[in-house]
Amino acid sequence: MEFVLIATAHFLALLSPGPDFFLIMQASLRMPLRYGVAVCAGVATANAVYLVCAVLGLEVIKELGWLMTILQYCGAFYLVFLGIMLLRAPNRPLFSDEPGHILQTRHLGRQFLLGFMSGILNPKNAIFYLSLFTVMVSEQTGFATRCLYALWMTTVVFVWDVLVAKVISRGRMNSLLSRGVFLVEKFSGLMLLFFGIILPFV
């Protein structure tokens, strides 16, 4: 029963689009699927880091106010940076051989890093996982079981994000979005900018 409650709460949180969603969307629109998957892998790895902290019972992190403040401002700066990059991007065809901006660098390692930084610099991830394990996981739940919970959530994050990337990169969806890809990028840029601006105040 405990697992069902945790898995449900986690999946419902995934359904709410955040900065990661817009980062995955822009990568999947402009580049082959493997680069979108690299972003997804980075996001999932960042989630795994916080899950490891939660499994180890590092609720003390929540008490380190200065650390959370630094994380918030670094995350805000990063999201604002990503938003500005998308807002400044020129109007280019969906399928173009011209070099794009830094977010569209066709390098798996860099795309992984973009996803990882987006996830690790989002203090909401730390708060969510630490709260989830503090409130919903019983003190009697063994270490091995907690590890399985963490493995499950990391896998779900990765699989869900890859499904999103795959849907966006499909031919039919690409054809549909190709007409307004410039507007989609600008909207994504505005959303990332918005998340970055409000992050220090939430």
Task: Provide the fold topology.
Elements: H1 2-14, H2 19-30, H3 33-55, H4 60-63, H5 65-88, H6 108-120, H7 123-135, H8 143-169, H9 171-178, H10 181-198
Helix pairs in contact: 1-8, 2-3, 2-6, 2-8, 2-10, 3-6, 3-7, 3-8, 5-10
What can you see in these coordinates?
With 202 residues, this protein is mainly α. It has one domain. Helices cover 77% and strands 0% of the residues. It is built from ten helices and no strands. The protein has helices at 2-14, 19-30, 33-55, 60-63, 65-88, 108-120, 123-135, 143-169, 171-178, 181-198. Helix 3 (33-55) runs parallel beside helix 6 and helix 3 packs antiparallel against helix 8 (143-169). The protein is globular, with a radius of gyration of 18 Å. The relative contact order is 0.23.
Task: List its traits.
202 residues, mainly alpha, 10 helices, 77% helix
Helix content: over 70%
Q: How much strand?
A: under 5%
Count of separate DSSP helical elements: 10
- How many separate structural domains? 1
Residue runs with pLDDT of under 50 for 5 or more positions:
none
- Outline type: globular
Q: Got a strand count?
A: 0
Listing every helix as H and every strand as E from the N terminus to the C terminus, the arrangement reads HHHHHHHHHH
Describe the main β-sheet briefly.
Answer: none
Mean pLDDT: 78
**What is the SS-derived class?**
mainly alpha
**N-end to C-end Cα span:** 31 Å
Specify Rg, calculated over alpha carbons.
Answer: 18 Å
